[in-house]
Design goal:
This protein has 263 residues and is of the alpha+beta class. It has helices at residues 16-25, 66-74, 79-92, 138-154, 194-197, 208-221, 229-262; strands at 3-8, 32-36, 40-46, 55-61, 96-97, 100-107, 112-120, 127-128, 157-159, 167-171, 177-181, 187-189.
Length: 263
Amino acid sequence: MSRIEYKITPGFEAVRPLVEAVARDGVPGDAAIIYDGRRNKVYTLPSPGGIPYKQLNLKAYRVPPWINRVAYRWFRPGKARRAFDNANELLARGFMTARPVAFVEEKGPLLYGHSYFFSEQLGPEWENLRGAHEWPDFDFVARQVARYMAELHRKEVWMKDFSPGNVLMKRHGDGTVEFALIDINRMEFGVTDRDKLVTNFQAIFDTVEAVEVLARHYADATGLAEGSDARDRLVADARDAFVAKHLQIARKRRLKKIFLRRK
């Protein structure tokens, strides 16, 4: 018989009936889907009242492959639990993310099952960075992203999926910007390994030229002097990280085409 485990953020007890209903019955009928992916689906829900948000975000993770069903059941936290814990850790370190409300996990006698993560629904004023390299103020945006990356790294935060869809930006009337991270189940804290941190350059923008601009602004933000070997090495490593990632993507696409042809 499966066991349901859940945790609600203190101060959000008003969501308990909703959390228990989702744990028992799955996604409610009044949920509006806003993302339908292979690995998860994301919905918005009207707030049950008693909390400071008009809407909640509900991420429903698909049941993982069997090897992960064993791992998440016995050896490591599942994605919903990690999203909840990582959100709390990010907020504690001074970084914005959708505030966590609750998570739910289904654990069978041997295997892990369904899981859900409830959070604040961020408003439409938050924009992702897809296509940012084509924006007229790209240099300004790249400079702000570089400063944000440098602050994440200074506080030893490694966001493994540092991609344009997972980094949101909000512009303020005074010309300043604010950033938030979403889809945060794949993170590590206490990371100082340069080889890991430099991978944050590999997918955030879509062209190698944009990544080089970002790397130069990052060098400025971290105090690497113009013309220094350390600065040149950083720009080269950022470029190499981008190229390696895109070669990997191209290789996977070729293999997929070969596999589909043989079928």
